[in-house]
Write a structure and sequence with these properties.
Chain A has about 160 residues and is mostly beta strands. Chain A is about 10% helix and about 35% strand. Chain B has a nine-stranded mixed sheet with strand order 3-2-4-7-1-8-11-10-9. Chain B has a two-stranded antiparallel sheet with strand order 5-6. The chains are: A mainly beta (about 160), B alpha/beta (about 425). At the A-B interface, β4, β5 and β6 of A face α5, α6 and β5 of B.
């Protein structure tokens, strides 16, 4: 059949339905715990710098993936919670392939003073605007409501 | 050293869904066809069996336990590679090179139509602490029975948000395509031409499921899903199973088959961290370098006659051609427009219809690509046959959100 749209709902045929109960508790790790403990109290990010190649990781890591060496405590630095948009997209589809209630602008943001980027939702009134190179800063939950998860970063603007 | 050859191939038809067959029957069909093609009895002749699968795609824990019966491997050496089909080919290649095994069968499949929550499963492959929460709420809509939720508190203790739905994980392709277009000067129209070409090629491939006569405008007018990725830029998922039988050169001669040689392969993975990963398909570049070296290929553009590259998204075909060293940065779109990537061009690319024309068959991608190259080198490709092809390349990428790729080089003559 040469149609672009095809029947893809197998539930209309005889079948057995099952699901996987797969809930996990993910440990943040040593570096992650420090990062989120810091984020709970401060409006900046923690990063770590490789002592050999000087690459700055944000989120911070305990080891450098390029040099395969430890990153010592003294090589940790505080960096501003802002950066520059490298690439961005407007997502209109949800995980089940249906339309999102409202489109979401999502970007890869090069974080200032680091060699790392971070995914972030961009809050903008004009989702079609070219955001390339735009400076954005993280908007965090009010300090009292922070819990030490990525959800403390509400969005970038 | 032992040369390694393909002595048999088999595959099912590829369909958007396969409600008439369960996954075991489906794998049995592909394997039985490959064994008949090779003229062997798997219960006696095959020394080792490899399947390529990923538990969450399959819907089983420890999928390898469910494998032996339908591929003829009970009480025989059998294992599952959690990777693409070309990773399986690579493992088989090495087993034969050691001299321990003479015949190895590799199977990979997609029964993705059984998977009702594909987007969620792919999101499960994102870093759970630093990346996955970006897509939306962390809690599942159905929390019944989970110890971390109670009737009183139907939300997890931390990480709750007011969001109601998750963004589809393919947003990453939107980010990468924008990077590719900006870096190379390639346009969305040029990517649309990849879709038109591959869906057209699929007409001449009997097992392809997404053949279509469409125009560039149809692609351009299709809906933006993850701008600049439009709905027709995305390879729709498909069910299909492929089995390839490899053997040592000596064994192939004994069996009297006319072999195609697997002369090189390569694979590698980039860092999983999106924070530091490149956006230029570096995995394909490194994997190709390894494969070229093994196969003694010095000038890939001149020496390779036909390629099947991963085109899970239209721009990926162009990006991969460039990473593989078959075009300069930004040149792939020019080759496409000049017709060089057509069946009759100088670098026929995705003559099978690619994933845009055949369908995205997940971990079976590499074997579907290898199947096409072997079919072409054997001269069995019918109306899509590329004349005089001696050397072919198959390449796969494990898809969003991975940075993993593999390359296989097949040749008519042993190297």
């Amino acid at each position: 059949m040469t149609f672009l749209e095809k029947q893809s709902d197998p539930t209309s045929f005889m079948h057995w339905r099952g699901d996987m109960q797969a809930d996990y508790l993910y440990t943040n790790g040593v570096a992650g715990n420090r990062f989120f403990a810091h984020l709970k109290k401060k409006d900046t990010f923690l990063a770590s710098r490789c002592p050999q190649c000087k690459k700055v990781f944000m989120p911070p890591r305990m080891f450098c993936e390029d040099c395969f060496c430890d990153i010592p405590d003294k090589a940790w630095i505080e960096v501003p919670a802002r950066g520059t948009v490298r690439v961005w997209t407007v997502a209109t589809i949800n995980a089940h392939g249906k339309k999102l209630k409202e489109p979401k602008v999502i970007a890869l943001i090069d974080i200032d003073k680091t060699d790392s980027a971070m995914l972030g939702i961009i809050k903008t009134k004009n989702p079609d605007k070219d955001l390339f190179g735009q400076k954005v800063k993280a908007v965090l939950r009010p300090k009292k409501k922070r819990e030490g998860t990525l959800k403390d970063i509400l969005y970038f603007e | 050293m032992n040369k390694v050859c393909v002595i048999g191939v088999g595959h099912t038809d590829f369909n958007s869904m396969t409600p008439d067959m369960e996954w075991k029957e489906f794998m049995y069909e592909a394997c039985q066809k490959a064994y008949v093609d090779a003229g062997i009895d798997p219960r006696k002749d095959v020394d080792s069996f490899i399947t390529c699968a990923e538990d969450y795609y399959e819907g089983f824990g420890i999928f390898d336990e469910f494998v032996p019966d339908q591929i003829g491997a009970t009480l025989r050496p059998c294992g599952t590679v959690c990777g693409d089909g070309i990773h399986g080919l690579g493992n088989a290649f090495m087993q034969i090179k050691t001299g321990l095994m003479d015949i190895v069968a590799i199977e990979a499949h997609s029964k993705v139509s059984d998977l009702l929550t594909f987007g969620d499963v792919v999101l499960f492959a994102f870093d759970p602490v630093f990346e996955r929460p970006i897509s939306g709420p962390v809690e599942r809509p159905n929390f019944a029975g989970s110890p971390s939720y109670t009737k009183k508190a139907p939300k997890p203790l931390i990480g709750s948000s007011k969001e109601t739905e998750r963004i589809h994980p393919y947003f990453l392709a939107g980010l990468e395509m924008q990077h590719y277009l900006r870096k190379t000067g390639t346009t969305e129209e040029q990517c649309a031409k990849v879709v038109v070409k591959n869906k057209k090629n699929a007409f001449r491939n009997p097992y392809a499921d997404y053949e279509a006569r469409i125009r560039v405008e149809d692609v351009m007018e299709s809906e933006y899903m993850f701008k600049p990725v439009k709905s027709l830029d995305i390879a729709p998922t498909v069910d299909g199973a492929v089995c390839i039988v490899l053997a040592s050169h000596k064994k192939a001669k004994e069996l009297g088959v006319d072999p195609i040689y697997l002369s090189g392969f390569g694979y590698c993975s980039e860092t999983p961290w999106l924070s530091t990963r490149g956006m230029d398909a570096g995995y394909a570049k490194v994997a190709a370098k390894m494969a070229y070296k093994m196969a003694g290929i010095k000038k890939p553009r001149k020496e390779i006659d036909i390629v099947e590259v991963d085109d899970k998204f239209s721009y990926k075909e162009l990006q991969h051609l460039e990473s593989l060293g078959l075009a300069r940065s930004g040149e792939a779109a020019e080759l496409l427009e000049e017709g060089e990537l057509d069946v009759k061009g100088s670098l026929p690319t995705n003559t099978s219809g690619g994933l845009l024309g055949v369908g995205n068959c997940l971990e079976a991608t590499g074997l579907q690509k290898s199947l096409e190259i072997v079919t072409q080198l054997r001269g069995h490709a019918g109306k899509r046959q590329v004349p005089d092809c001696e050397v072919g390349l198959a390449q796969s990428w494990r898809g969003i959100p991975t940075g993993t790729g593999a390359v296989a080089i097949f040749t008519r003559e042993g190297r």
